[in-house]
Amino acid sequence: MASSNCVRSGSSGVSCVIGTLPCRAILAACWPCPALTLNSRVSQLHTAMTTTDTGSHDTTQRTLFSEGPLRPAPRPACVVVIHGEGLGRRADIHEAPVLIGRSPEADLSLQHKSVSRQHCRIWRDGDICRIQDLGATNTTCVNDASLRAETVLADGDRITVGESILKFIAQDSVEARYHEEIYQLAVNDPLTDLYNRRHFCEMVDKEIGRAVRHGRPLALCIIDVDLFKPVNDRYGHISGDEVLRRMGALVQAHARGDDVAARIGGEEFALLLPECALDDAVALAERLRAAVADEVFAPGGEPQQITISIGIAGLAPGRDSRSTLMTAADVALYRAKSEGRNCVRIEA
Ligand SMILES: Nc1nc2c(ncn2[C@@H]2O[C@H](COP(=O)(O)OP(=O)(O)OP(=O)(O)O)[C@@H](O)[C@H]2O)c(=O)[nH]1
Q: Which parts of the sequence belong to the GGDEF domain (predicted)?
């Protein structure tokens, strides 16, 4: 029966009508309805309840009108990495061709030695999409066949690029949305919605590569909440989580368009600042520190000042890898803690 997802039969006198199909159910078992709570995108839900006396039982009729899941906006065709380096990453195919390769300048950059710098290209040609190998050492394959000439892609085609496998998803496929949601789950911290540590580390590698190549500055701030343990101990972890959520929003609010904000540990955040000289990074960190100190947090309903300490390091000769840059920012953070907290320190 179509309504069986929503309604479990029971022996009490409650009748439930989903659409036009009636069935008898225990009202408590009927609500919350698993199918509805799972599908948060039900666009319209009108519940009409009438209670009538049917002999010895009260009868409640519940009628649900739904247009089904919200129709997503039209989506362009795209490729999604479904295996290997870059797992979950997606490139939409708009008017401009999409370059896939190891080069950091590629539209879909796969930093793996099995991938050539310019591996293959995909572009739109009217309503279809075409793919071309660009002379890669490990020739691009489509559905396991080496790509010798330009080929038209079909929905679901598997594209092998070195050791990564990509899937082509045609325009308007709902599958693109599924991959996007999975990707968000993989890269975001669920508490703050900032990037998680793993994705942040990938971004640091990428931005260091770009900054070194172009001789541009890059700064890293590591931000740690001061004396957070007593907040948890006094108000409990749920209130502590709320503080972290608001802290995440403040960190994000101080990030510019290209900056990368992340939660990299329990009460530790980071801001990666591309094209940002050390002086500017210090000014930004100081604004963030002051904003946090001015914010009134109220864990457990009690107004409370909470502060942060920030350590900053910039890219420099001998400090041009993720580990050296993060270690230097950590050293500066340690100094900020030991010199009284609620301050910004730099590792020059
Ligand atoms: N509520 C909450 N607490 C967390 C989370 N992750 C880590 N913590 C807590 O954060 C606290 C960190 O405490 P410490 O590392 O001792 O540092 P602190 O008390 O902040 O002191 P300083 O860093 O020296 O200023 C611990 O109590 C952890 O349990 C989380 O996700 N939620």
A: 216-348
Query: Of all protein residues, whose CA lies closest to atom 30 belonging to ligand 1?
Result: 266
Per-residue model confidence as pLDDT tens digits over 224-259: 999 999 999 999 999 999 999 999 999 999 999 999
Please name which of 327, 84, 322, 325 lies closest in space to residue 205, comparing C-alpha atoms: 322
Q: What residue owns the CA closest to ligand 1's atom 24?
A: 227
Q: Which fold has domain 189-346?
A: Alpha-Beta Plaits (3.30.70)
The pocket around ligand 1, CB under 6 angstroms, is made up of 224-229, 232, 237, 240-241, 244, 266-267, 337, 341
Q: Domain 78-185 classified CATH 3.30.460.80?
A: no
Domain ranges for the chain: 78-185, 189-346
Nearest CA to ligand 1 atom 13: 229
pLDDT at 336: 98
Q: Give the ipTM.
A: 0.97
Pairing state between β 308-314 and 268-274: unpaired
| 122 touches 101 (CB < 8 A) | no
Least-confidence region, from 113-127, 166-180, 287-301: 166-180
- Taking the centre of ligand 1 as the mean of its atom positions, its distance from the CA of residue 242, in whole angstroms, is 13
d(CA 184, CA 137): 32
Share of the chain above pLDDT 70, in %: 79
Residue from 232, 237, 267 whose mutation best tests the ligand 1 pocket (most atoms within 8 A of CB): 267
